[in-house]
Amino acid sequence: MKANVIFTPENLDELSFSGKTTVVIDVLRATTTIINALNNGAKEIIPVASVEFAVKVSGGMFGGLTLLGGERNTKKIEGFAMGNSPQEYTPENVNGKSIILYTTNGTKALVKAKFSKNLFAASFSNLSAVAEHLSSLNQDIEILCAGRNHSFSLEDSICAGKMITEIIKFKEGLELTDTAKACIILSKSFGRNLLKMLMETEHGKLLIENGFEDDIKFCSKINNINSIPAFNGNVIKLLVKE
Amino acid sequence: MKANVIFTPENLDELSFSGKTTVVIDVLRATTTIINALNNGAKEIIPVASVEFAVKVSGGMFGGLTLLGGERNTKKIEGFAMGNSPQEYTPENVNGKSIILYTTNGTKALVKAKFSKNLFAASFSNLSAVAEHLSSLNQDIEILCAGRNHSFSLEDSICAGKMITEIIKFKEGLELTDTAKACIILSKSFGRNLLKMLMETEHGKLLIENGFEDDIKFCSKINNINSIPAFNGNVIKLLVKE
């Protein structure tokens, strides 16, 4: 069993994920939003890779049962019901709804990895639940960081490092690639105070500038949600364990 | 003054380097080879981004004074005088010669960054010399890791982290991007025993498999050469300080 971390989906072909077990991480904020929305009763999340496709998909769905959510340049997209703040996705807002979600990095990463055999969404909020489930699957793991601006994201890498550290507790001989080793070291160094770390990253600073400091606080919580979002047939639903 | 690290040149446009001060790092082995070749008396290095272009350029040059060097899949290219082992570039082999060099990652990164205002090549061998020179320039710094297979290279990142740590000795208030911070942490954790670290990286293992263990030993030496290769008008020569 082997763990690898990919710092950005940018250069990978969709087909490279065929048959793989993949976890997408976008701490700030897409995967945290997805986890919270499903945990609060959303029926499903439909991640899309463009705003145009989000609007197109929503046109063919029943009004009232479908919501458009997402951001561009950190802010809610005009005409969309919700932005990308996890806390907007309350039980009152999302219960029973299908949510079409577009975000700059996170949903693109999920769409890129759609041919994976197993595809999950993770963040600090469901870290241990995902780690335990991955250990039970006993398959090689690709942790795909959504990254930022087609590049490295410190917060996603730290989350990946923490997840691998958790998996090692169950799988002592876990083989690690260079990126996996690097993420473990980064998580040990930066992972002690997640809120402080998130506030000091480039992405964190940008969110604070745009008035989303509360989102950072929400995204810094660890293991507050035990749910595992799983992608299947173009939609993400909570994993129902057998 | 600010320091940034780029983990791979893959997604960047050539023009994004316009006016910048850039350092290219490819520890295993291209920049170590370039530093050693110039230090051993080579007149100049002409980095190229394709084998075809290497052959084309060499056709227009005087025989005897020009050498073709480089690798594909770690090995010397058929018809080339030399591979990518730094130790092949002895004074006897290179003195007074123009060397056209093609390597999988390193020379491509140099060519990608060619529009930089200042462009240098660094590795562990000339780390402190380059750090001191960059400090004296007092410009924002882009450290471009050549990476591996269009992705992250642990050894290049560690070298970048060590270089930034050196620069901070001269420039206390140096501003750091997220990647720069990550590299410093990686260099502190992995940088104590460079030979061991290099032997255990994915790239190191591949080189050992292909019989290049001596190259790794050579590339693990730190500050054994004080020369700074500088790119100017499509060729790399040793920097002559004013």
Features of the shown structure:
10 helices, 11 strands, 38% helix, homodimer, alpha/beta, four-stranded mixed β-sheet, 242 residues, five-stranded parallel β-sheet
Structural domain tally of chain A = 1
Distance between the termini of chain A: 22 Å
Overall number of strands of chain A: 11
Q: For the report, how would you describe the main beta sheet of chain A?
A: 5 strands, parallel
Q: What class, by secondary structure content of chain A? A: alpha/beta
Q: How are the strands ordered across the major sheet of chain A? A: 7-2-8-1-9
Structural summary, described in words:
Two copies of one chain form a homodimer. The first copy, chain A, has a single domain (2-237), classed as putative 2-phosphosulfolactate phosphatase. The first copy, chain A, contains ten helices and eleven strands. Chain A is globular. The first copy, chain A, is an alpha/beta fold and 242 residues long. In chain A, helix 5 (127-137) crosses helix 6 (154-170) and helix 6 (154-170) packs across helix 7. In chain A, strands 7-2-8-1-9 form a five-stranded parallel beta sheet, with helices on both faces. A four-stranded mixed beta sheet of chain A has the order 3-6-4-5, sandwiched between helices. A two-stranded antiparallel sheet of chain A has the order 10-11. At the A-B interface, helix 7 of A face helix 7 of B.
